[in-house]
Amino acid sequence: MRVANSLVNQSVRSNELPTLNAPAVSRVTSVSGGVTQKASYSTDDAAKQILRGGYRHYDRNGDGKIELSFTLGEQFSTQQKVSIRQALQAWQDVANIVFKEGSTDSDGSITINADPNTSGGRAQLPNRYYGDVAATIGTQGAAESPNNGDYFLLAAIHEVGHALGLGHPGDYGKTVLSYADAVYKQDTRAHNVMSYWDANNQPEHDFKHLQPSVPLKDDIAAIQKLYGANPDTRNTDTVYGFNSTTGRDHLSLKSANDTAIFSVWDGGGNDTLDFSGFSQDQIINLHAESYSSVGGLKGNVSIAKGVVLENAIGGSGDDDIYGNDVGNRLRGGGGADRLIGGGGADVFVYDRASDSTLSRPDEILDFTSGTDKIDLCGLLKNAPTKHFNVVKQFTGRPGEIVLSHDPRSGNASLSLDLTGQGKADFFIKSVGRIQASDIVTGGEPAPGATKLKPTPKPGLNPDDTVYGFNANTGDSSTSLHAGSGAPSFLVEDTGGNDTLDFSGFKQDQRIDLRHNASSSVGGLRNNVAIAKGVMVENAVGGSGRDRIVGNAVSNVITGGGGGDELWGVGGKNTFKYDKVTESSVYDPDRIMDFASGEDTIDLTALAAELGTPLRLVDAYTGRIGDTVVKHDRHSGRSIVGIDLLGRRQSDFLIKSARLIRPQDVLGLTSRQH
């Protein structure tokens, strides 16, 4: 069978090989010397561009997951094989796929061989008819033990991307012969490893011709559109960079000479970007889909869409550090740093007096008294005095702190005399007043390190317990009502059928039902936890865009308003909808791991609220209540849509990354043709 494939040639077989050419440097400038203007693509648009060929692997054995076997040719050196396995692992970390070396019971296979005659590579693209694909990776000029930044590692991650179904961002060799012909600005290796064009084609990026070795921001979005995200990857507290806890070489830094070119995908927890080992001036940005410039490179570390990182640590240079909308802990380190906390209750942490001096002070550009904190615990631990006092002016006693504020300009400062010489040994400038109550000196818990107190045994119903809104615990610390702030508690309930209900909050939340996991609700991070060995069965989200993760038992998951991301994980799960506003066509819920025949979608309460039967139809007829359940065999995705207004279109919509059958949906009447 022959199919059109704009990624390779005008008309080729679907399993023919797209080619990665040997390294080339391409930079395009206009007559005036500036970079040629191109369209700018969002992360989602770039992902769609990479996926426009429609290639992917399928669940051929019907076990509800994509498992691929792989074999490596003997021509590779031992360390080259290790690098290729790391490339496969990097794709598995970000997507809901599993690789097994030499497996025979799988949904497809990837055979990877060496080509000593090139430094590039080739790979076949999978589709419904071809699940077994081959790839070659060039070893010409490659080191026997490749290092991060080497071209061999780029070739490996690029060709595995093809073998999984990803195409090039442009029609290379056809209409796109250089970056000058690229369709959009982000068609470079700063944004995706599927590109042919160096990062430095964009002035905001410069990798000094080093290469990425892991999926980047747009690659992650693309592969997750195909197979779903992997929520289990690094879903506890994780450090990226120096002092890394990732267990991945490409996300870890051990010396100032190491190369940092990566994009962060993270499943949850309280997480940190640590670039403390670098001496260059850096820009560190905690916003999702943003770029940081660290270690002497430019725009070289990004954060994938949907990822929330809480903390950042700078180096000894003059760093700019940007927080995000949650509570962040920001450490500038040495140098004259500029810190912006952003939204949330932020903590600015200082470990040494040299972190901010009178001659080279840090500047906190958005300090909010009563919300933000300045943590001096580390600094004071090694100070010559343990007694500190806020005074109007220095008197020559060690430990004196002077706080100044100009109400006209809003500028403020904190000065600390550690030695009793009547002058500041430590000095911070601030936009926004700093008060004595904003300073953490030890003993009191700082925001971002929330202390979780155990809950008492349930009082009203010791078996089935609701925590949060609509609580029946009989305890104020676990009971919420209109106007309540974010809670902080630990669930230690070992019996009954229990529920976490955070329906009254408007913020985007993460609710995790797995034991020993933390949830981030009501605007705080990791402020509700489930003890080890404890099972909570049900979750109710609020009106924001929540991410709810179930556990190994059967769960009832109610996303509430907003476009939620829902994971059942294990068991026979029910995704429950009570109101027609809980999943709109403009902001639909996404069920990521629906298991047809096991899981159900419960529309019973929604139908009662609507007051009209939900009639299962093949196509909308113009009647209110018409409901369609559609499955796309090519993409593997499904939808459930309801016409609420009789306009022959979906007003209520649920999307699923996997098959949904009509019999999986509760609350429908018989099919109407």
Describe this structure in words.
The longest helix is centred in the first third of the chain and has 17 residues, at 78-94. The protein has a nine-stranded mixed sheet with strand order 32-36-38-40-45-44-43-42-47, with no helix packed on it. Strands 10-9-12-16-18-20-22-27 form an eight-stranded parallel sheet, with no helix packed on it. With 673 residues, the protein is mainly beta. A hairpin with a 5-residue loop joins strand 24 and strand 25. It contains six helices and 47 strands. It is 9% helix and 26% strand. Mean pLDDT is 88; it is low at 1-17, 22-35 and 443-462. It is globular. Helix 1 (43-50) packs across helix 4 and helix 2 packs across helix 3. It folds into four domains: 3-227, 3-Layer(aba) Sandwich (Collagenase (Catalytic Domain)), CATH 3.40.390.10; 239-440, Alkaline Protease, subunit P, domain 1, CATH 2.150.10; 450-571, Alkaline Protease, subunit P, domain 1 (2 Solenoid); 600-673, no CATH class.
**At the third CATH level, what is the topology name of the largest domain?**
Collagenase (Catalytic Domain)
Number of E-type strands? 47
The helix tally amounts to 6
Strand content: 25-35%
Annotated CATH architecture of the largest domain: 3-Layer(aba) Sandwich
Indicate the mean pLDDT. 88
The secondary-structure class comes to mainly beta
Note the main sheet. 9 strands, mixed
* General shape: globular
Flag low-confidence runs: 1-17, 22-35, 443-462
What is the CATH first-level class name of the largest domain? Alpha Beta
Side-by-side strand order of the widest sheet: 32-36-38-40-45-44-43-42-47
Our measurement of the CA-to-CA distance between the termini, rounded to an integer number of angstroms, reads 35 Å
> What is the CATH homology-level superfamily of the largest domain?
Collagenase (Catalytic Domain)
Number of domains: 4
Task: Please state the CA-atom Rg, rounded to the nearest Å.
Answer: 27 Å
What level of helicity do the residues show? under 10%
